[in-house]
Amino acid sequence: MTAIRDGDAAGEILPAGEVLASVTPVKRLPVTAEGRSDAAFAPFDWLLILVASAVWGASFLLIAEGLETLEPGVVAFGRLAFGFLAVSLVPQARRTKIDPIDRSRIVVLGFVWLAAPMMLFPIAEQWVSSAVAGMLNGAVPLVAALVASVLLRRAPGRNQLAGLAVGFLGVVAISLPSMQGGSKTALGASLVLLAVVSYGFAGNFIVPLQQRYGSLAVIWRAQMAGLVFTAPYALIGMPDSSLAVKPVLAVVVLGALGTGLAFAAAGTLFGRVGATRGSVIGYLIPVVALALGVVFRDEHVAALAIGGLVLVLGGAWLTSRSGR
């Protein structure tokens, strides 16, 4: 019987029972790195994109459902806990050895990719709709591209610069109706944008880690760090939360799929194609979030925000194109 290590581009086959990734200490990994391939996306890449974007697009609806009876800190900790349990079921995640010099990098990843956004989104969705929160996530590819350009010390090409400009206008258009809805609504939109920036950095940070250790090993340990970061906030919110079936079930699904399966798929994609191209996941998240918010929660979305979504998607597409 054999097992496949998810950190390998082609999938290295190892004997069952063997430690799946024995790592020899080397120098510290770079902050970010190029993807393994700059070729056109393979069918497996598109599968990863579809899985992550569909699950994450639904996550904003699940967060809104969880907030019906649970405080934001409990939702954040709960989704991390159930995601951690889901990934723990895969022996590969636990067996992979991490070089001590890289453990601090994973702790940072646990904060910027998991703890911080997962605390920010439930707070924000108290004042902005799940559809608007999801649409603002369309800016993640733009942030990821900008961060990659700085960290890799290469200026964006003309397509990328045009994409960043168009996408920024789109984010402004999506945010403007929320900014006019009162101070709390504006605060909610600002918190979502802060989470988007955090995701843009995290997408770059995970690339070299995933390429060396594989998605599951990195995410499992990052989730462990995220649980530590979010635990105090969850304890504060427990007295004001009540355990109703529907909200709790929403958090269970949100954790197992959104913080387990989707993060594993996204991490693998980032390692294969790099942060800028891997953030194409963010192109489809707003579409899913918008549709689910309107259908299941009867949320109203301003026409200006929908127009902004079109600009964000167009800007993200320009950013992802090849050509300097």
Describe this structure in words.
The chain is mostly helical. It has one domain (40-320). Helices cover 72% and strands 2% of the residues. It contains 13 helices and 2 strands, in the order ββααααααααααααα. A two-stranded antiparallel sheet has the order 1-2. Helix 2 packs across helix 10 (245-273) and helix 8 packs across helix 10 (245-273). The chain is globular and about 45 Å long. The N and C termini lie far apart (46 Å). The relative contact order is 0.23.
User: What string gives the helices and strands in order?
Assistant: EEHHHHHHHHHHHHH
Helix/strand-derived category reads mainly alpha
Any low-confidence stretches, pLDDT <50, length ≥5? 1-26
The percent range for strand residues is under 5%
The main pleated sheet reads as: 2 strands, antiparallel
How would you describe the shape? globular
Number of strands: 2
Mean pLDDT: 81
Helix fraction, binned, reads over 70%
Number of helices: 13
Q: Ends: how far apart?
A: 46 Å
Please describe the topology of this protein.
Layout: E1 2-4, E2 13-15, H1 43-66, H2 72-88, H3 91-95, H4 100-124, H5 130-136, H6 140-151, H7 158-179, H8 183-213, H9 215-237, H10 245-273, H11 275-278, H12 281-297, H13 303-320
Helix pairs in contact: 1-5, 1-10, 1-12, 2-4, 2-9, 2-10, 4-8, 4-9, 5-12, 6-7, 6-8, 7-13, 8-9, 8-10, 9-10, 12-13
Key phrases:
single chain; two-stranded antiparallel sheet; 2 strands; 72% helix; 2% strand
Quick structural gist:
The chain is mainly alpha-helical and 324 residues long. The chain contains 13 helices and two strands, in the order E-E-H-H-H-H-H-H-H-H-H-H-H-H-H.
